[in-house]
Design brief:
This protein is an alpha+beta fold. It has helices spanning about 5-15, 50-55, 80-85, 120-135, 170-185, 195-215, 270-285, 290-300, 305-325, 335-345, and strands at about 15-25, 30-35, 40-45, 65, 70, 90-95, 100-105, 115-120, 145, 150-155, 160, 230-235, 245-250, 250-255, 265.
């Protein structure tokens, strides 16, 4: 049994449900689990000595179960204000990635807002991307407040596209493609670190290396080189069906876009590839949609240039391989499905 399998078994033995995991080196996993349906951050440490050292840096942690360190009530040595925010009882913890970020919700429905808590050194970058997003000619979250380690934004009305496939037609994809084209037509602001094809290849290679450290099997097909320069546009860089918010009003659907944390500048094909590959994955996961029809409609709405169409297969292959590595650390069949797709494409 691999160390990763042991970690998942230990999580299940403790009556916890694994939601997501992220490697923090070859011996530590950062975890987000559900404890009776409530999000709970934690860490798995395969090295007993390292676990003891880690425990000493978390004096307020009340639970250590086997090789698991659990971080109840928002305890986090890097997100220093999170526990205090939850203690006030005015917000709900939506997600908590240990030592990286957490999302809190205040209010309900149209009056709800979300607070993203990050490491203090990352806050300015989060604020800058949030302000750029709020200024876009799209339906995006307005920035309400910010402080030393957080940014609070207003909720965008509607539900994630991820939850609506069974109730909407692929024709909505045309409107989504038009929305994405509008984003990419926005004048590019001054941004210090553009994300080009070489940077994307490096991200993929890094995830493949992390997967190898935890004995996660991937096809030996890492794309070599890059695909050459493309159209330099403002990129969402994490575009998928959970970031697209659809409000089904009587006058027709309105579409919003959220989570601009990775906002950057790069090739238009990257955003398209990330969205299209996620739609393929949803089919494999059992969601009710025709990925081919959605792809056609999105591309019809977006109207990619010949250069972007040429780049698209390379970026799609990068995305499949990266997601195969990412989902190797999560429960379910997504990893296996992505690997099968990669094998078939050889």
């Amino acid at each position: 049994m691999t160390i990763l399998a042991e970690a998942m078994e230990e999580i299940a033995d403790q009556g916890l449900e694994l939601r997501r995991a992220w490697p923090a080196g070859p011996t530590v996993l950062h975890l987000e689990v559900l404890d009776s349906g409530v999000p709970l951050a934690g860490q798995f440490c395969s090295d007993a000595d390292l676990l003891q050292k880690l425990l000493k840096t978390y004096p307020r942690v009340t639970e250590s179960r086997g090789r698991l360190l659990l971080q109840p009530n928002g305890v986090d040595r890097q997100l220093k204000t999170l526990a205090g925010r939850l203690l006030r009882g005015t917000c709900e913890l939506i997600s908590h990635r240990p030592e990286r970020r957490a999302v809190l919700r205040t209010g309900t429905g149209a009056n709800s807002c979300y607070t993203k808590v990050v490491r203090a050194k990352r806050k300015q970058m989060l604020l800058d991307s949030s302000l750029v997003a709020a200024s876009l000619p799209l339906l995006t979250p307005a920035v309400l407040t910010h402080d030393s380690d957080s940014v609070t934004i207003r909720a965008v009305p509607g539900r994630p596209l991820h939850e609506l496939f069974a109730g909407v037609s692929a024709g909505l994809g045309r409107q989504i493609g038009e929305m994405l084209r509008e984003l990419h037509r926005t004048p590019v602001p001054t941004m210090a670190l553009p994300h080009d094809a070489a940077a994307e290849a490096a991200v993929t290679a890094d995830w493949c290396q992390r997967a190898a450290e935890w004995d996660i099997k991937l096809p030996d097909i890492l794309p070599s080189g890059t695909c050459g320069p493309g159209e330099r546009v403002l990129l969402h860089r994490d575009l998928h069906d959970k970031q697209i918010i659809v409000d089904l009003t009587e006058s027709g659907p309105t579409i919003g876009l959220i989570d601009f944390d990775l906002l950057t500048v790069g090739d238009a094909a990257l955003d398209l590839a990330n969205l299209l590959v996620h739609l393929e994955l949803r089919v494999a996961q059992g969601h009710s949609l025709d990925a081919g029809a959605w792809r056609h409609q999105i591309l019809q709405g977006y109207q990619p240039s010949d250069l972007t169409r040429t780049q698209l297969p390379w970026y799609e292959q990068q995305t499949r391989l990266r997601l195969a590595a990412v989902y190797g650390f999560r429960p379910g069949q997504a990893h296996r499905l992505l690997v099968d797709q990669l094998e078939e494409a050889k």
